[in-house]
Every structure is written in structure tokens, then in C-alpha cells.
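Repro:
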Amino acid sequence: MKIAFILKCFPQLTETFVLNQIKDFLNSGAEVWIIACYPISDNLKLTEDLPVQKVIYLSSSNNFFIRNLRHLSAFKKLTSLQKLLFCKCFAVERKLNDITDFDYIIAHFGQQGVLALRLRDMGLLSSKIATFFHGYDLSRYLILNLYQSAYRELFKRTEIILPISDFWRRKLLTLGCAEQSAITQHLGVNTNYYQYQPKTNLSSPLLIISVARLTEKKGLSYAIKAVADLSQKVDVEYMIIGAGGLHDSLASLIKDLNA
């Protein structure tokens, strides 16, 4: 089996579910390719144990034109010459010209599903497309406002839509996805990696850990304030593991609270 993953960036520290899925395909004997919009060089060590066939980056950075390729709702209406000019200008065709057919293209997040569809419309990919929807792509107003029409096209013209919960499946149905196309696919944790150790006594200091993307919806600022209040009464240590756009503001909040 030959699989291509379409991703916004690769490797992404907070997307362990993607890395784990890639590992599972590799362990099953599949040939795995990665097609990402741009790399995150600081995280490249995360891929040391991922013997993927090839990683292709459409751009060296978070390029405006590559980003906008995903939500050009009229892209399929471009003339062949216009598509050719686009490919030549941004070297997309050169980067994808040695790709052969895949059994399936797996896109993580709705925006990347749209990107996969655009690349297929350009004739650069020809495989079936399965798109995972995780919630971020369905819950942010700006994303829904920008992509809603492209999502409807994605629902109609690609093969499988994979929401990670029944909640998000119901949301997809309200946006126009057909019931038979939306299949809930949970992304669980392999419990074999962890051994439960019951605690009879709390440690001192009390150790609290959060593992999350550093974005507003995770509520980490509230957790930091709560731990700061708790520290007035209890010896406590709080560790946050993650990456994201709120890194600097959360670090400033910790400093301001002297926590």
C-alpha cells in the first residue's frame, strides 16, 4: 500500500496523532510519503525514527500563495494555461513531478483536504482523498467563514470524510456533508505505552502537568492563574508541554504572577 499524507507543516510537535499514524502505517509495511506546505526545522529530530519514502515541501516557509491555494474556491475553473503558470511560478509541479499514484491521500485538517483537492484538480495528484477533521477546522469562525464553500466542494468531490468524534460528525452534517461520507474515526492513545501506578499519597511538591497546543481554546491562562493561587497554600509545581502562538504571552503571564 502506498500512502501520502498532506499536512500544513511537518514535523509538528503538537500533532503526535499524525506522527503515530505515520508510524503505524510504516509498521504495517506501507510506503509512506509526506507532502507538506512547509517544514519546521526545529522539530526535524522528531522524524529520526520515521523511515518515510520521501518528504516534499511545497514551500520553504508559510508562503502566502501556497496558503491561498487551499481556499481558492474557483481554482478548478482556471484555464489549463493559468494552472500551468501557477505551477511554474511556485515550482509546485517540479516538486511533485516524480510522484506516482497513491492508494490513498490522507489529509489532516479540513484545510489540507481542500489543498489535496486543488492539487488533484491541477493534475498533480490522482488518488482518492480521505480528510480528517479535528475540531480546530470546524470551530474557529474565521476558518469556517473562509472555507465553508470549499468544504462543501470537498464533501461532494472526495471519497471519505473522517471526523474524530461523533460531535464533529454532526457538525459536518450541518455543513452539508452526506451521512454516508462522514465516518467517525477516533484517534486514541495506545495505553500499552503507559503503566498505571496508583498513588496512595500526593507528592510534595504537588506536580501538575498539561500537554496541549498553546492556543486560547485550551484555557492554559486560567490554569496558570489557578496554580498561582494554589501555590499560596500548597507547595506545587506546574509544567506545560506544548507549542503554539501563545507561547510568549503565557510566559509573560507566568512572569507577571511570579509563579
